[in-house]
Amino acid sequence: MTEAKKALRQKALAKWLKEGLLRLGPTFIKIGQQFSTRVDILPQEYVDQLSELQDQVPPFPTDIAVSIIEEELGAPLDDVFDQFEYEPIAAASLGQVHRAKLKGQEVAIKVQRPGLKDLFDIDLKNLRVIAEYLQKLDPASDGAKRDWVAIYDECASVLYQEIDYTKEAENAEQFSENFKDMDYIKVPKIYWEYTTPQVLTMEFVPGIKINRIKQLDQLGVDRKRLGRYAVESYLEQILSHGFFHADPHPGNIAVDDVNGGRLIFYDFGMMGSISPNIREGLLETFYGVYEKDPDRVLQAMIQMGVLVPTGDMTAVRRTAQFFLNSFEERLAAQRKEREMAITELGFKKQLTKEERFEKKKQRLAAIGEDLLAIAADQPFRFPATFTFVVRAFSVLDGIGKGLDPRFDITEIAKPYAMELLRFQDVGFEVILKDIKKRWDRQSKAFYNLFRQADRVEKLAQIVQRLEQGDLKLRVRTLESERAFQRVAVVQKTIGNGIAMGSLVNLATILHFNSVRVPAMIAYMLFAFFGLQVLLGIFKIKKLDQQERLITGTA
Predict the structure, then answer these.
(1) Which of 101, 246, 347, 462 could cross-link to 83 by cystine, CB 3.0-4.6 Å?
(2) For residue 201, is pLDDT > 90?
(3) Where does residue 143 fall: left (phi above 0), alpha (psi -120 to 50 degrees), or beta otherwise?
(4) Does residue 428 have a pLDDT over 50?
């Protein structure tokens, strides 16, 4: 197959995927919207097709839109608006937008698709069943597990809020108030007199979608600056305000040429909120990373509910220390790699990359057992609050890579976060809290000096209890545990293989003796155990791959 034929086939598959998502309805259209920004994951043909889901979803008939507007506003269309464009300027999964004039002002009227609540009631009821099923299947250890039902509840709550346009209008005004002092953010003004649960009237603010690279270049804006603004605005939303835009796909973010290029945010139906304790935990995490203090990072993660303080925390701490130590090194290496010219140094650069890869491989092998211990004990969990935070930054990362191939979200976030930590108006109370924490640590260290004798005595008591057999000491040997796990899988696979062979022999004998029904049952059991054998083989291969990764062998 030639490259041209491959490209044509990819275009056809991308179009088929887009049309399939359109047929499946609003929920799957939203999934497609998120992947439409991932230029670093999907081929360009798929990105081009899925981008059409952002604001080129097929509209519903205009006469239905007009009837909804007139019913919601309680007056004929001509009595309300000076001018109304019947052709929608944009259509999305939940509604469509018409341009109009209201008392001489240009406005955009967002009209909700009919029957959305009934559709949500059905889809979300089915998703609730799936969430409960996943909750039962998800393995738990010391209570540390993903709370699938809580994640579902978070998503369902946000989706139901999104189909109430009065709530969206309130969100837009709060968002605008939060960014009133930042001239690079623009939020359309809301016209409350002409806004209802199914109709939203707002200021018409035209702009170029943030992923239209050629048009942005023609506008003359700095794309690298736009990527930085997008990340900084989200850090501001999450760390300072605790209130953030949860659906930042390119259909909801545009750019104009005011003040050198402003970010225009649309569609405030999906908004997320961060509780004060999680915001404080995020700030503590940044402090811990800045100071390279693994204990502070772990305490912040416990405060946020990301880490459950159970099991062997030593492995978790060592792993955190490793990543903190290598954080600066990785950033420096990335900066150096970008600065190197691809000319006569190309061969040298390739060697440097290979050496860096081998070094990283050796370091990963050194902490392999710690990572395995973490995976086995499962001390981490994914709070429902973070569902939309991770989703938003994933989309932003895709947008940033489209604007600038050298875009690195961590490089942009780090200096801004440090600036925020140093200079934001956190108040005297927060400063006192930080001083108190430092004083407590010093006081505790000072107090411990006078407890050494008591600790020695307690240690002697523990040793005595060990000698008497009243206390048992459990030592984990991770290498042995992995070996035993592999032996158990091999034994189970062999057992399934023996059962499979016996059943196929039995089924064949029964078949030739015309005992049909028992023969069919034996063949079905043979197929079941055959599947178990295949799964066992795949699991053994996976365990072997994991062992090679941990030990660093080829």
Answers:
(1) 101
(2) yes
(3) left
(4) no
Strand 185-186 and strand 243-245: the pairing is unpaired
Of 141-155, 212-226, 380-394, 503-517, where does mean pLDDT reach its minimum? 141-155
Per-residue pLDDT at 127:
80
Give the separation between CA 306 and CA 278, rounded to whole angstroms. Answer: 10
SS3 content of the chain, % helix, strand, coil (to 5): 70, 10, 25
Tokens matching residue 377: 């004990």
173-196 mean pLDDT = 94
Chain-centre distance for alpha carbon 444: 38
Q: What is the mean pLDDT of residues 5-24?
A: 88
Burial of 3 (0-12, 13-18, 19+ CB in 10 A): exposed
Q: Known catalytic residue: 247?
A: yes
Q: Is the pLDDT of residue 365 over 60?
A: no
CA–CA separation, 424 and 277 (whole Å)? 17
Q: Which of 467, 387, 441, 329 is nearest to 155 (CA)?
A: 387
Catalytic choice (79, 183, 247, 295): 247
Q: Output the CA torsion 416→419→423→428 (10° steps).
A: 90
Residues in the chain, total: 554
